[in-house]
Amino acid sequence: MVKAIWNGVTIADTTDTVVVEGNHYFPLSAIDAALLKPSSTTTVCGWKGTANYYSVVAGGAENKDAAWYYAEPKDAAAEIKGRVAFWKGVKVA
Fold it and tell me: Full-prediction pTM beyond 0.90?
């Protein structure tokens, strides 16, 4: 079981993650969507495409842009479509 936890709150919990470049990408169905707040931030990866971000809101605090996803990943990263990864202090174990 892989979990994503921040500020004492479990954001995601599943046995089905895809690991890319050391990051666990969780399926949307395993994530508590109520804890994610859409962000206008985007970044570009040469082989994955354009990443969009969510801020994580949990335990009365907000962690800006702590989750990202590729809505339309390039073909080389097709396996992460519909999945979300975490960083910025979100513990994934």
Answer: yes
